[in-house]
Amino acid sequence: xxxxxxxxxxxxxxxxxxxxxxxxxxxxxxxxxxxxxxxxxxxxxxxxxxxxxxxxxxxxxxxxxxxxxxxxxxxxxxxxxxxxxxxxxxxxxxxxxxxxxxxxxxxxxxxxxxxxxxxxxxxxxxxxxxxxxxxxxxxxxxxxxxxxxxxxxxxxxxxxxxxxxxxxxxxxxxxxxxxxxxxxxxxxxxxxxxxxxxxxxxxxxxxxxxxxxxxxxxxxxxxxxxxxxxxxxxxxxxxxxxxxxxxxxxxxxxxxxxxxxxxxxxxxxxxxxxxxxxxxxxxxxxxxxxxxxxxxxxxxxxxxxxxxxxxxxxxxxxxxxxxxxxxxxxxxxxxxxxxxxxxxxxxxxxxxxxxxxxxxxxxxxxxxxxxxxx
Length: 374
Prior knowledge:
Elements: H1 3-19, H2 31-41, H3 48-76, H4 78-102, H5 107-117, H6 121-131, H7 135-161, H8 166-177, H9 197-213, E1 216-217, E2 223-224, H10 227-242, E3 244-245, E4 248-249, H11 254-277, H12 280-287, H13 290-313, H14 318-328, H15 332-342, H16 348-372
Antiparallel strand pairs: 1-2, 3-4
Helix pairs in contact: 1-2, 2-11, 3-10, 3-11, 3-16, 4-5, 4-13, 4-14, 4-16, 5-6, 5-7, 5-13, 5-16, 6-7, 6-16, 7-11, 7-13, 7-15, 9-10, 10-16, 13-14, 14-15, 14-16
C-alpha cells in the first residue's frame, strides 16, 4: 500500500474516531494519534519530516494568531504564567522521582516516561543527550499516548465538572484582551502584497529556525536551544505582534492560519503516534502496567497542580487557566482540544505565555535529573 495513501487513511480513521462522543467528551483531532499508534505497532513508519513539518505549521500558526494579543496579556500577568510553568514542571519531576523509587522503574526509562507524560519532545532530546541511552525514547513512547489523551480530557472535563458557564468564561477572556490594539495600527495605510501569505509565513518560519538554532551554553558542557517548537512559536509571536515590515503589511488572514494550524496538528500527531507505536507492546510486556500507572500519575498531578495555582491562587478565569496549563505542560494536542471547547482564539495567548518558560524548565530538569537518577 502506498505510504502516502496510508497517511490519509490514518487521518481519516483518526478524525472519525475523534468525532465519537463518550459521556459528552471526544478526542477531536487527537483521535489521529490513537489510530497512528496501531499502525505504528504493525510496522508502518512515517518520515520524521512529517512530524516536524506538522509541529512547525501548528506552533507557527499559533504564534501568528496569538501575536497581536500575547504581549499585552503577558505583561499583565507575567508572574502568574511563570509560576504556573514552574509548578507544572516541578510537580512532574517530583512525581517522576517518587515513582522511579517506589515502582522500581529503571531511571532512564522513568525519565523518558516523564517526557512522554508531559508530551515534551525537547525534554526527550535532552534526556537522551544527558544519559547517552535510547531507553528514554521507549518510556516516552509508552507514556506519550496518555500524556496526550489525559491532557485533552482534562481541558474538556474541567468545564463540565466545575459547571462553568462557557459564554461567561469567554466574555471574561475577551474582556482581558479587548483593549489591546495590534502594533500595526498607523495613520498611513499599509501596503498589502497580493498572494504573499505563504511567503510571509515562510519568512516567519525561517526566522524561527534561526532563533531555534541558537544554543545557550549550560554547566556541564550541555547547551539549551528553543529548537523546532520554541523557535517558530517565538518568531510567530513577534511577526504576529508587529504585523508589518516598514509600510508593508505582513498580516496573514486568520482563515489561512487556522487551516495551517489544523493541518499541522494532524501531521504532528500522525508522526508522533506511528513513532511511539513501534516497540510499544514489547516494553510493556517486560515492565508491566506500572509504566502506565507512572505516566498517568505524572500527567494528572502536573496539570492538576498547574490549574489549581492558576485558578485558585492567581484567580485567572477558566480559559486563561486552562490555556496556561496547556502551555505549561507544553501540550500541543491539549491546546487543540481547548480551542475546540472554547471556540475562542484568545486561549492561545496564555498558552504562548507559559510555553517558552516551560520549554526551558523541562530541558533543564531533564538534564539535572539525568545526573540525580544515575
